[in-house]
């Protein structure tokens, strides 16, 4: 566990090292959203989500990209509530769940309400299911115990261990008709930020869960059926350690790309000033249109268009539509680092 805490400490230290953490945070949050949703079978990629947020027209089924977009909204809402002083409690979980299932797939599955009927995991009926969660009449007691545990009642639990145990317990209770997996993974991030292990949600632990999806499901089940908490905690700690390390490495590589590209923009002479402002927008939002850059940078559209064209000539960015009008640009090398591991599962 010490190695995982050290890796988290390095990741948290990135927030102090970077000149503007929000530049990476915007996409790190979206990466976790994409990965967590892919575990559930969505085919939306990071690029799909960024294009959807830019244009509203996804390249994959609408429900897939909406599901990911809802996850981003739910995470940001939960963090905002916690930072305002609201406790990590069952009411907050319901509020976050309402955001998670607000639109698209699952919107008819009682968003924000604990289930009032039996559900199950795997199989077609409870009789042939892989696992049957507690019946509705037992939910209140189970959720009360979970809430007490999250708030260190009756005693303090180390934050990383608490996140590992709470995730299994939430998934085992399965308190909603839909969205339990995504909310259970979101709970990990919320808890680590709430307990100030991380100042910002820079951890995308779902990358490891996705890469080892069968082991992830099997270990959750082994806790339920055989009480094998040790194997699960070991897996969880390794997931945190590896993904924290990867997030730190990605931040360093992204910083190097930014430094190199800023230096290359110095060759543009009269355009350098406006191009640097355009680059600042691309760092935070690596898929853009002229209108978006103009709005966020304060530059007129003609200056933005000239800067984007010059940056494309330098090979810093790519135009992705092939059209003469309504063009969209991608900060390709930067986005490639961010998108590592987010290819949809086959």
Shape: globular
User: If strands are numbered along the chain, what order do they take across the biggest sheet?
Assistant: 1-3-2
The H-level CATH homologous superfamily of the largest domain, spelled out, is Fido-like domain
Total count of domains: 2
CATH class of the largest domain: Mainly Alpha
How big a fraction of the residues is strand? under 5%
Count all strands and give the number: 3
CATH architecture of the largest domain: Orthogonal Bundle
H/E element order? HHHHHHHHHHHHEHHEEH
Would you tell me the structural class of the helices and strands?
mainly alpha
Low-confidence stretches: none
Amount of helix: 55-70%
CATH topology of the largest domain: Fic-like fold
How many H/I helices?
15
Q: Largest beta sheet, briefly?
A: 3 strands, antiparallel
Distance between the termini: 33 Å
Oligomer: single chain
Q: Would you give an account of this structure?
A:
With 346 residues, this protein is an all-alpha fold. Helices cover 64% and strands 2% of the residues. It has helices spanning 2-17, 22-39, 46-55, 62-83, 90-100, 136-150, 159-173, 180-194, 206-211, 213-226, 229-265, 272-284, 290-297, 301-313, 332-338; strands at residues 287-289, 318-319, 328-330. Strands 1-3-2 form a three-stranded antiparallel β-sheet. The longest helix has 37 residues, at 229-265. The radius of gyration is 21 Å and the shape is globular. The relative contact order is 0.13.
Key attributes of the depicted protein:
346 residues; mainly alpha; Fic-like fold; Arc Repressor Mutant, subunit A; 2 domains; 3-stranded antiparallel beta sheet; 2% strand; globular
